[in-house]
Amino acid sequence: MDFSSKLLEQAVDEMSQLPGIGKRTALRLVLHLLKQPEEQTTQLSKALLELRQNIKLCNNCYNISDTELCEICANPSRVSEIVCVVEDIRDVMAIENTGQYRGHYHVLGGKISPMDGIGPSQLTIKPLIEKVQAGKIDEIIFALSSTLEGDTTNFYIFKQLEGTAIKTSTIARGISVGDELEYADEVTLGRSITNRIPFENSMKS
Amino acid sequence: MDFSSKLLEQAVDEMSQLPGIGKRTALRLVLHLLKQPEEQTTQLSKALLELRQNIKLCNNCYNISDTELCEICANPSRVSEIVCVVEDIRDVMAIENTGQYRGHYHVLGGKISPMDGIGPSQLTIKPLIEKVQAGKIDEIIFALSSTLEGDTTNFYIFKQLEGTAIKTSTIARGISVGDELEYADEVTLGRSITNRIPFENSMKS
User: Fold this and answer.
1) pLDDT tens, A108-128?
2) Zn finger regions (C4-type) covering which residues (chains A, B)?
3) Which one, of B153, B127, B52, B83, lies nearest residue A31 by Cα?
4) Is residue A41 part of a domain?
5) Is B85 helix (H, G, I), strand (E, B) or coil?
6) Does ipTM top 0.90?
7) Do the Cβ atoms of A89 and B4 come within 8 Å?
8) Out of B2, B21, B41, closest to residue A49 by CB
9) In this structure, are B84 and B23 located in the same domain?
10) Fewer CB atoms < 10 Å away: N or C end of chain B?
11) What is the domain extent for residue B128?
12) Mind listing the pLDDT tens digit for each residue in A196-205?
């Protein structure tokens, strides 16, 4: 694309580096900002800069937080002995929205993925193992997405925990509530039969 | 959505005010920025701010420009007596990409649209009429998109020009090059028959 303005070109170039945003979309977004009051652009720039410069990770669970210890870890009514291992803050938000979990989290910050150059040392696996070795945790719940990378990460952590007396579990895989069996994929349906639960348990909440 | 961080919430709120970007996409973009080097966020913020604060409109054609007179208007090899009326810079870029047009442009900055509260006074119609009255222009080419708003705007300008000796034209509507007649809509096909051109003209470039 040939731009009549260097300023416009720079803004579009920077914008189009965001994932899923091409040059055309970037141009549309930037032209939208030009039509809005200058304040909107100022606030957007300020919010992004402040976030990037001042954001902290919770000292205990490595979730994104404004304080040294995040709200969840600082809440005394939550069970600190149960820890749910997740990939990032989006998973924490999804589980929190269910209202079904009262334990702590441990945010890995990604999954082991040699293809993307992400090894165990780039993730917060070491602090998790240390917490376990310090005897602070009774149970670890693996809640990573069930992809090749997710399974690899689960297995790596599981291996690291060998020799400790900790209880490990993983979230149940099965047919979604409200789904038709007919349209479910074989792997999920197969797992939901193998891991069937006593009927009386399914009537709780 | 409940965020564990006010900074994150603010950034997502500002980001999701852009058109076509919802809360979830905004969160994905913001988390992406957090994973990239701090420099990327700094440059994005800077580029957006500089654009918004320093951008100029060309004194002659009202296109976005870094200088008082844009490159096209300042180019002496272009024909200043023919003016193509377009909606915004994207249309200028599209026509420039064809390499078929050597005249000037006049960027309206929008279309007359009472539904969105945009009247003739918010557009650069007055300066266009003044240029015509000053006798600087021989021909005006209307190149707005053929929607209700585009047609209204064309007609409004056409009416304003009544009494002047200026030649007006509009870009040809018809079947796209390479398209099958079978799948063309009736209005376009009808227009392309009514406005048929001598066959020998169609063989030029």
Assistant:
1) 999 999 998 999 999 999 999
2) 58-73
3) B52
4) yes
5) strand
6) no
7) yes
8) B41
9) no
10) C
11) 64-171
12) 888 888 777 5
